[in-house]
Amino acid sequence: MSETSGTAVDNEATTVFMDHRELLFALVYNMLGSVADTDDVLQEAWLSWTARIRRTPLGTVTNPRAYLVRIAVNHALQRRATVSRRRETYVGPWLPEPLVDQSADGDPEDPALRAESVSLAMLVVLESLTPLERAVFVLNEVFGYAHTEIADIIDRTPAAVRQLAHRARGHVHARRPLYEAHPRVRREATERFVRAAVGGDIAALMEILAPDVTVWTDSGGNRKPAGLRPVRGRDKAVRLINSFADRRQGRQDLELTYRRVNGDDAAVLFEGDAPYAVMVMDLTPEGDQVSGVYIVTNPEKLTHVHKDETDEQGGQGEQGE
Asked: Alpha helix (H) ranges present in the chain?
C-alpha cells in the first residue's frame, strides 16, 4: 500500500470513528466514571480500528458501529483493572468525574452530554458492580442493547448475559428508586438546597435534608478540609455543609453558578476563572428532600470545567458576599 493510499485509508477510518465517537464516549464513560480514562480508551479503540482497516478494506466491515462498540467496551473492561488499582490508594471518598454542561442556556454544547446521561448518583451505585455486570447494565439498561447483542460484544453466551443483567438490575434497583420526581420539581428543590447551603441557613437545611442524608466530599487529598469518609445523618451533614458555606463567605473570589451535571441540575463554584467545586444533589423520589450530596473538589477531576461567558458577565453567577 502506498503512503498516499494509506493516508486515505486512515482518513476514511477516522471519519467513520468520529461519526460514532459520541456513542463510544458515553458508553465508556458510564463504564469507568472518568473522562481522562475514557479519552485514553477511545484512543486505544481508534488505534485498534485503524489497524483493522489497514489490514482489510473498510467495506468488509458489515457493521462499523457494532465493531467499534465491541472494541471500545472490551478496551474499557481492560482499563477497569487500572482504575480499580488507582482507587486502592485514593485519599478519601472517590466520586466519578462530573460531566458539566459548559453552556448556561440548558442546551448541551458537549456532545457527550447529548448522549445518554447517567446521573452522578447512579454512577456511584454502578461502582459497586463487577466490571462485567456494569458493562451489561450500561449496554442493556442505558443504551437498549439486547442480551444477544451484548453477548457478541463481551464474548459471553446470551444465558450468561441474562444472568449478569439480572444480578446488576437487582443490585441497582435495591439502591436506586425506580421513580424519580419531575425535572422541574428536582430543579426547584436543588435551588432551595443550594440557597440554604451557600447562605448558611441551618433551619432551611434541616428542612430540606432527609434524615438519613449522606454527603460525599471527593478532594483526593488536594483540598482542605477533606473528609476521609462519607458523612451520614442530617445533623452531621449540616455541620459539614456549613463549613463550606463559611469558607465561601470568607472568600470574595468564589462565584456560584448553576449548571447541568450528568444531566441533572447542580451547582458549580469557581475560584476566579478556575473551577473550585461541583456540587450535585440526589433527591428523594418525591423530590422534596435531598437524600445525597456529592461534592467534587479534586482539581484533577475538574480540568474539563470552564466558565461560560455569561458567568463572567454576571448573567448566571452569584457572587460571594
From this structure: 3-32, 35-55, 64-88, 111-114, 120-126, 131-137, 147-154, 158-175, 183-199, 202-208, 234-249, 309-312
Distance CA 146, CA 126 (A): 19
Mapping DSSP onto H, E and C, the string for 132-173 reads HHHHHHHHHHHCCCCHHHHHHHHCCCHHHHHHHHHHHHHHHH
pTM summary value: 0.87
Which position has the grid cell 419531575? 182
* Residues 120-148: tens digit of each pLDDT: 999 999 999 999 999 999 999 999 999 99
Residue 308 · residue 316 · CB < 8 Å: yes
State whether residue 260 is helix, strand or coil: strand
* Adjacent-strand bridge partners of 261: 100, 264
Helix or strand holding residue 282 (H, E): strand 274-283
**Longest distance between any two alpha carbons in the chain, whole Å:** 73
- 112 phi and psi, to 5 degrees? -60, -30
